[in-house]
Write a structure and sequence with these properties.
- The chain is an all-alpha fold.
- It has one domain.
- It is built from 4 helices and no strands.
- Helix 2 packs across helix 3 and helix 3 packs antiparallel against helix 4.
Length: 113
């Protein structure tokens, strides 16, 4: 995996969301990537090897930024809400597959023969 970048997040969220981000886009997305890395590190104690999780978390935060900038109009934008839900589900699912829960608790997997 490669380290999450502005380009990798832009590829996930698409140009419409990218253009809707309030402020200087690259600076905002860099901040969101940092925040996503901090969120993942709080759960797993590291960011090493969690690039996909960080990318999806940053994408969810970016979509949330756009929804927040839209004000009341965002309540009717189901496409953006669905996109945010998808990204949130993905980073959570990937953590659960590795034995972590988004609330920071370790999940023990039992294998049955």
């Amino acid at each position: 995996m490669t380290t999450p970048t502005n380009t990798s997040v832009k590829n996930l969220i698409g140009a419409n969301v990218w253009n809707g981000i309030e402020g200087t886009t690259t600076t905002i997305v860099n901040d969101l990537i940092s925040r996503a890395g901090e969120d993942i590190a709080q759960i797993t104690s590291t960011t090493v090897g969690y690039d996909q999780e960080i990318r999806y978390r940053a994408a969810a935060l970016a979509v949330n930024n756009v929804l927040g900038g839209m004000g009341p109009a965002s309540t009717g934008d189901k496409d953006l809400q669905n996109q945010r839900t998808y990204f949130n589900d993905e980073w959570r699912r990937k953590l659960i597959q590795r034995g972590y829960s988004p609330d920071g608790l370790r999940i023990l997997m039992e294998v049955e023969d």
